[in-house]
Protein 1
Amino acid sequence: MTRSTFFLTPLLLLFASILHGVLSFTNEPPGRDPISIDKVRAAERAVSLTSDNFDELTKGKLVFIKFFSPHCPHCKEMGNAWNELADYYQQPDNNKNEDILIGSVDCTNSPAGKALCARFKIMGLPTILYGDANFGGVYLEEYRGDKTFADFQQFTSKELVPKCNAGNLDACAADDRVEIESYIAMGYRELEAKIKQMEQKEKETKVFYADEFGKLQDKYNEHLAEKTSYVTRVKDDVRMIKEVIALKG
């Protein structure tokens, strides 16, 4: 091996390594390369939530949370509308009590983003959850409406309001509050027994109304038969009268 070849070999190996990296990068499917993914993440203007900060940032808040992936076409389609909603609620006039939080969770962000998506059993993307974030988000429900800013804003103005539950008794009507407080005063065994009692009552109610519906159905069939018989008899009488008129003529 000549001296020049000895020095060129490491340079050629280095160049081949760089070339391989560049080709690997540029051969990624559109939108899935690292730069595109970073741009999507950086464009998010909603509060970024992970398993590390979720409980702290959402405590006492009414939330509207998007679970997404930077690769997901449908997530990208709603991206501008979501950012517009986040900007809207960051305006003091639109969030006077600072109790509404618009958040985003990147389900591909390891490990904290993925962990939060697993915690809420997110199966498809995008998924949007909303509601009272107390008690770790047990009250959250899935949003199934359209995904424009106007739809988001209209929905949140109506739904992101304090609602009666065990974590927010101040929003309850007097009767509801008394009932919830009676449950709070119970022990675990009493609560479990209460659930079983109510589930049994539900079953009995379904059986009762199924039986009542059957009776109503029988009665309906009886009246339907009577009506059919009467109508048939009337038609026969009319036909006979017309025949008599024809004979008289």
Note: Residues 166 and 180 are 6 Å apart (CA to CA).
Protein 2
Amino acid sequence: MTTSKAEISSEASKRICAHMNYDHAATIHAMVTSKLSNREAMRCKVQNAKMTAVSMKEYSLSYVLCDGDACAMKKIKIPFVPPLNSSDEVKVRLVQEHHKAMAPNFMWLITDPLMRTLFGACMLLGVGTALGQEELAKKVDGLPWAASIVTAIFGNCSRFARLVIGLWYFSLAVHTLEAFYTAYLCKKVLKMKSITTLQWFALNVCTGFPIMNKVKELVAVDCAARSTKKKN
């Protein structure tokens, strides 16, 4: 009995889901995390994300969401926009969904407290470095309240300015090294497109380890799924 191309059979759906869950587990994980609220993203961990069904209109995901020791099974349906016209489109559309899910979100620079803090600190260090040691020391010295704090902690404004510049170059070097490692994981392990890899690289330079940790989390999910596949 043949199945119309205007629908996806249950057998085909199961086959697609098995392929996605074993060979693209990181993508499924990223699909789920991209749908979390800001509060959930900050407080909760996603575990055991799976694709459970695919139809012409949508695909279904299940996952465990843990807030501390409290865990709950969740399910979501993500629509294809627009819906598939033929079952032959499912591969292409899921590839598109893969690339969309694996792309970093630059809004993290605003919505994620840690990234926002690190990015802001790096920006301030960069501004201080751009001013130069002498000019930065003069500006701080021209603000009595700032000068008194800086002098009490660092001894004098000139020493503080040298520290600012040194920290800027140190953080830039460390973040860039991290970013190269992140780019390697994105390109070689997670098989991301070059433009997506570049976006992760840029965010890593801006914020440092929080971005690298997000990519390492995806790699861990991918490796665990492939290991399970080999055992089965």
Note: Residues 126 and 168 are 6 Å apart (CA to CA).
Protein 3
Amino acid sequence: MLSLARSASRRFVVASAVRAHSTQSSAAGPLASSAYVDPARSRDPSVLTTPENISPEAREELESALRVDQAGELAANWIYKGQHDVLGRDPATGPLIQDMWDQEKKHLAVMNKMQLQHRVRPTLLWEVARLGGYGLGAVTALMGREAAMACTEAVETVIGEHYDDQLKAFEQLPPDHPSVPLLKEVIKEFRDDELEHLDIAVENDSQKAPAHALLSTIVGAGCKVAIELCKRF
């Protein structure tokens, strides 16, 4: 129970910071990720280059972070596909899942470009992420609407915290390299999106799922194990 309370407390702190950042971003103009889909910026060094003169530790941190992020966005796509295959025809839940899935498709497309830009090896667990994500999404959706939302809540809690930790780690990257400010802003944007999904799940009865605490603990722990495995493999 103590660990659950700590997780909830940290989620509140992160989510509060995210809402403040989201308000500022909305007023600032285009989303950071739009740089990767805007033809006018296709030759911009911020989307083409990667820091070269950095320590081996910083390079390893960058590569493991983007490898995990790409795998995580892949898994998220397949989680939502699994949920949509089961609950897509539900007039209330189907559109919610579709909207979140559409955002994850965009996230994956951008992460795929960032993986190439920064010359990062994709995870060797690509198929595991795909199949595991679909299985998790479909099984929790078969357990009911609330369980599907509980799955989303648990996954996005871990991912939101993970992105927040990455932003701290990226402080060691050279701020004067054109790719680094954009990298940080994209991570902030995606973190905001993931925590928005978390809020949507809570607003749609995730915490009314049978054995909510147990389900959240199992899904959250599985996500943390997957993150560590993808860092290495």
Note: Helices lie at 2-28, 45-48, 56-87, 93-117, 126-142, 145-169, 179-203, 212-232.
